DNA sequence: TTGAAAGCGCTAACAG
DNA sequence: CTGTTAGCGCTTTCAA
């Protein structure tokens, strides 16, 4: 940043008025003669004067900047979230300072600190997988910087949150299979100790129960990556003759099992129907295009920013924290 | 940002010394007694003092912030770029302010302005598709804010750039098909007026020529999206019997044609080999996994930041702008 | 209607 | 070794 930026002082000096006059003229302060105002405004325009946001922030004690801490940028869901955040923030006159924790607790702490050092007005955070301690965030809140959690929330801290309704998404997906005529549905699940694993499993069970379908233990397999599908290939093929539907905890797992089944002569969706969860870009590329449950990252991002700005602009409002639940919607394609 | 942040002045008052003493003690200035230094440092630590980055920036005329303008965050390539940028910037003590132009010229201009208002030390930009005018960026450079272009560069502005070697990538891909025994290679191309379309076409031709394979005009088809493949389905199937290889300008097109061919009984790679360009996450999910040319977004991001910081930290160095060309590498999988 | 002065938080030149 | 002062760019009393 070269000193070549023109300042209010420069304008004042050149025009032979005081800096305060310039400042007032520029922002249409009432106590200013129209003459001076025009003079100043015209000149400012001519020399392309732009206020220094740093100085403004320092003075106003408000940066109009939102800090974001995200586990991984390269991930369709998270990048959609960022996109939604950026779009809304931009529209509301805020900017985003973005840090990625790379799923590393230590880095998450440093990032938080750095964002606070920059005096961001608020924080948007999705906690990293390795984070077990939340002092860094609690402290931020205690010191007056509001935090909104999204997706990977932290139960121990009371604040605003936006999450996906995993239970409901899974329920809808399973229900859809049932409506398509499936009675023997395999669930490829994430580990139960992960919240999403647990919730999606529960949604699956709920749907079965409400249709009086027996929940067989052997029909839920811990298998949540493409690689795992390939490793378990034989076991999956052994089960295949006994099933007519698969609900996989994510799209890549769903696609992988579709492929394994197809390679072994199963017709999809005729013999076995498959549904995933997440609706990343792969779902449409799969063959047949994969039915799935859309996770709405963009909307989640917007919502988180909306809640944060809401808090920022009503600092005196009574603090009653909200948890906004985003219900994923069924995307019916050709695999079911 | 509540005023509850402790400042140097607060510490000075409490400890009964002057602010400058505190400032000096904190940064291990030589002219300070060990006693005072320890006193100050211990106290600062106790009250968790953190310097205000805004004040620092204003004072030092340096923000340690890099501005990024990117067409779309939700895009595997671009999000990889951001990730690479963020990682390196973070390591070098810089932060990133990110704006997306959404392929909109007007918004790109506003974003540039906003970042300059925030006095970012430098700009990283990939221009939007609708940008035909570059004054906003030229002005930035003229006023002393260095700019590094990446991926979507602008020829009219002289500055540092990082680009992918599209010609070479296409050449290597085509060459690979030839080495696998293909002699009749179809090229699904992007429009010639796009730089990547042109360069990749040229690379394809070059490979053919150097192996004395005739370049048939009817073997290059403008077709660069999945949808287009489906639209041209019949035409592609008409040509299919005459070809033994396909080089598609991007992965999704490659995957789409693989699927069309497979649905019509062609065995891949036995009868027809297919290679793509880009190596997004789809490539591995395709069946068979798609051979492709890896575009290295992460590396491109790092490189762009490296060049920018280099410039920032050697302001007096002679300005000789560099163009760094990143050569994509062949990812051989099972479709060839 | 305008200007002078103080201050946001920090540093650095200059005194002492 | 430490304090005083001025100033980064801006706004906002307070006085005139």
From TrEMBL, chains A, B:
Domain HTH lacI-type: 6-60
UniProt KW Transcription keyword: yes
UniProt keyword list: DNA-binding, Transcription, Transcription regulation
Pfam families per UniProt: LacI (PF00356), Peripla_BP_1 (PF00532)
Source taxon at top rank: Bacteria
GO molecular function annotations of the record: DNA-binding transcription factor activity; transcription cis-regulatory region binding
InterPro entries reported for this sequence: HTH_LacI, Lambda_DNA-bd_dom_sf, Peripla_BP/Lac1_sug-bd_dom, Peripla_BP_I
Name of the molecule in the record: Transcriptional regulator, LacI family
UniProt organism field: Alkalitalea saponilacus
């Amino acid at each position: 940043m070269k000193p070549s930026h023109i300042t209010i002082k420069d304008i004042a000096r050149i025009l032979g008025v005081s800096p305060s006059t310039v400042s007032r003229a520029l922002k249409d302060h009432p106590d200013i003669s129209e003459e001076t105002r025009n003079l100043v405004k015209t000149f400012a325009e001519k020399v392309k004067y732009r206020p220094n946001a740093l100085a403004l922030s320092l003075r106003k004690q408000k940066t109009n900047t939102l800090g974001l801490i995200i586990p991984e940028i390269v991930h369709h869901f998270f990048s959609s979230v960022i996109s939604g955040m950026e779009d809304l923030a931009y529209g509301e006159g805020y900017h985003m300072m973005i840090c990625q924790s790379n799923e590393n607790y230590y880095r998450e702490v440093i990032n938080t600190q750095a964002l606070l050092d920059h005096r961001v007005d608020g924080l948007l955070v999705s906690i990293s997988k390795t984070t077990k301690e939340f002092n860094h965030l609690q402290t931020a809140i205690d010191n007056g910087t509001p935090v909104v959690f999204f997706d990977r929330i932290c139960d121990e801290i009371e604040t605003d949150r936006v999450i996906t309704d995993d239970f409901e998404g899974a329920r809808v997906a399973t229900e859809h299979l049932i409506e398509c005529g499936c009675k023997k549905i395999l669930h490829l699940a994430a580990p139960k100790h992960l919240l999403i694993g647990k919730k999606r499993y529960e949604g699956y069970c709920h749907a079965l129960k409400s249709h009086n379908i027996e929940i067989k233990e052997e029909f839920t397999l811990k298998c949540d990556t493409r690689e795992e599908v390939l490793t378990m290939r034989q076991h999956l093929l052994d089960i295949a003759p006994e099933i007519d539907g698969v609900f996989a905890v994510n799209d890549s797992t769903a696609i992988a099992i579709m492929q394994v089944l197809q390679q072994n002569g199963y017709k999809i969706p005729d013999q076995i129907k498959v549904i995933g969860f997440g609706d990343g870009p792969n779902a449409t590329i799969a063959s047949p295009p994969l039915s799935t449950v859309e996770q709405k990252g963009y909307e989640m991002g917007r919502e988180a920013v909306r809640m944060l700005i809401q808090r920022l602009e009503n600092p005196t409002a009574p603090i009653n924290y909200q948890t906004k639940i985003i219900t994923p919607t069924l995307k019916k394609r050709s695999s079911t």
